Amino acid sequence: MAGATTLHAGGDVAARFENRAATREPAWFKWTLITVSLAFFTLFLLMPLIAVFVEALRKGWDTYLAALIEPDAVSAIKLTLIAAVIAVPLNLTFGVAAAWAITKFNFRGKHLLITLIDLPFSVSPVVAGLIYVLVFGAQGWFGPWLQGHDVKIIFAVPGIVLATIFVTFPFIARELIPLMQAQGKEEEEAAVVLGANGWQTFWYVTLPNIKWGLLYGVILCNARAMGEFGAVSVVSGHIRGLTNTMPLHVEILYNEYQFAAAFAVASLLALLALVTLGIKTWVERQASKVKEEE
Amino acid sequence: MSRRTFHVLPGFNLTLGYTLFYLCIIVLIPLSAVFLKTSQLGLSQFWDVVTTPRVIASYKLSFGASLLAAAINAVFGLGLAWALVRYSFPGKKLVDALIDLPFALPTAVAGIALTALYAPNGWLGSALEPLGIKVAFTPLGVLVSLVFIGLPFVVRTVQPILEDLDTELEEAAASLGARRWQTFRHVTLPILLPALLTGFALAFARAVGEYGSVIFIAGNIPMVSEITPLMIITKLEQYDYTGATAIAVVMLLFSFVLLLAINGLQAWTEKATGRNR
What tens digit of pLDDT does each residue of A180-236 get? Predict the structure, then answer.
């Protein structure tokens, strides 16, 4: 399911096709297709992005900054960072372990395991939130026990962290599995035969080979962790200053018709998205350089 | 190989054990709660909950708009992928980088941005209103946000296949007298088809479950512009946990079927193009 998000290290091949009469379309066709595609791109991707910044600054810089340093906004930013700081390393550890087990060994049920790892991608975010309510909520499996011990998970920070972990679960594993599969295991086996232990093998042999894919998975995982809305919305309870993440804060402000403030907080998330895409493009360039050298 | 108990590389038990443990506590056990909770309902009760007129209307909107959005993305996504791979034009690198915006931009941000654009006083909404077209707060708005969310899936599954294509096949077709269109129709398209269908299915699967980008622009009018995930939220807000869970089961079963279909399509893509991802 993650097919569309995997590291893509292709070079520019346009010249190859444009320089040959047999693989070239007429100029009118070329420019019509480019125009239509760019119009579609502008309408659906570029304009929403620009709208975020225009709406955010509509009432001037002072309103913009005020919306960002207001205490509820600051606590939403903090909670978003906390959720990402917990979720990303946990999914990173899992991703590396899963990719190691799946790509370096043969065992029964491997394909089933890969499908199960993909599962969170195909579950609606709302359902992702719901499952934790059913397990940890007041009427859930552990609800009475948790209440007896005065532990709050749902409508509290742990629930938000759990929901974030769920929706970002497959990102890093799905990035590493195809990469490590393609690289095989000869290099690692050689290292072990030469006397390296498991940790040394991973650190000095495997990691240098997968670093770009790993970084790519981490930034995508992080972007989704900070931006998740549906799943977090179900488990948060929307308590201002306590269980509001940035996307939820945007929703509250928007529903209260504080549009400039809503877009101001949204613009921070849009900047995060742009930084993510910037790093992603840079990583792809590095990876394609490595590919060319090979 | 599978019967061998000795491995050259270390860490099999540790990594597989941890993988299964983490998978169980984060994904499998919580997901099983949905099915266990629903099993408390009788089959006829379950059926009643998931087939009330308001819920049926939400299925029609969610599945209909998602299918249509995925189809629109398949057409324009193929066009974009073609332009990005085969042509040089100014700003191409920027366009290529921004295609992934829907993956990186939080859905709530996309939702309010699209609403601001298409609201009656927005840039696009005010232009469309004299034509009698209302987008925001109608099913059309749902379609617009689902197109936004699904676009990169099609472009990013088709693009690498197009890049890997050799010129030779098309040159052979041309030298045998095929017109450019015939070459595309009979040579290139069949190679791209599995990837295109995979992208379509991925966009469709994502659209059916989408919540954040839709609820702002949909207006959420009962029987008209309510999507299925919103029905789950509505039931939860009324503390109707069994009702919410029953609808979740319907959505989950549907996503499982789609996941299997997508796995099949991806296997087909690999076979058709000789790529092994």
Answer: 988 888 899 999 989 888 899 999 999 999 999 999 999 999 999 999 999 999 999
Chain B residues whose CB is inside 8 A of the A247 CB are 106-109, 212
Question: What are the tens digits of pLDDT across the range A24-55?
Answer: 888 899 999 999 999 999 999 999 999 999 99
Over the stretch A273-293, which tens digit does the pLDDT of each residue have? 999 999 999 998 888 887 777
Q: Cβ contacts (< 8 Å) between B251 and chain A: which residues?
A: 124, 127
DSSP-derived secondary structure for chain B: -TT----SSS-HHHHHHHHHHHHIIIIIHHHHHHHHHHHTS-HHHHHHHHTSHHHHHHHHHHHHHHHHHHHHHHHHHHHHHHHHHH---TTHHHHHHHTTHHHHS-HHHHHHHHHHHHSTTSHHHHHHGGGT---TTSHHHHHHHHHHHHHHHHHHHHHHHHHH--HHHHHHHHHTT--HHHHIIIIIHHHHHHHHHHHHHHHHHHHHH--HHHHHHH---TTTS--HHHHHHHHHHTT-HHHHHHHHHHHHHHHHHHHHHHHHHHHHHHHHH----
B200 touches chain A (CB under 8 A): no
Dist CA A52 CA B220 (whole Å):
22
Q: What are the structure tokens assigned to A87, written together?
A: 């979720």
Q: Dump pLDDT digits (tens) for B130-152.
A: 999 999 999 999 999 999 999 99
Taking the C-alpha atoms of residue A270 and residue B115, their distance in angstroms, rounded to an integer, is 16
Predicted confidence (pLDDT) per residue in B214-245, tens digit: 999 998 999 999 999 999 999 998 989 999 99
Rounded to two decimals, the ipTM of the complex is 0.90
Residues 6+ positions from B83 with CB-CB distance below 8 Å:
A33, A34, A37, A38, B89
Alpha-carbon distance of B89 to A87, in angstroms, equals: 40
- Supply the pTM of this predicted model: 0.91
Q: Is the CB of B133 inside 8 Å of chain A's CB atoms?
A: no
Q: How far is B227 from A131, CA to CA, in rounded Å?
A: 19
Residue B118, token pair as written in the block: 């298409």
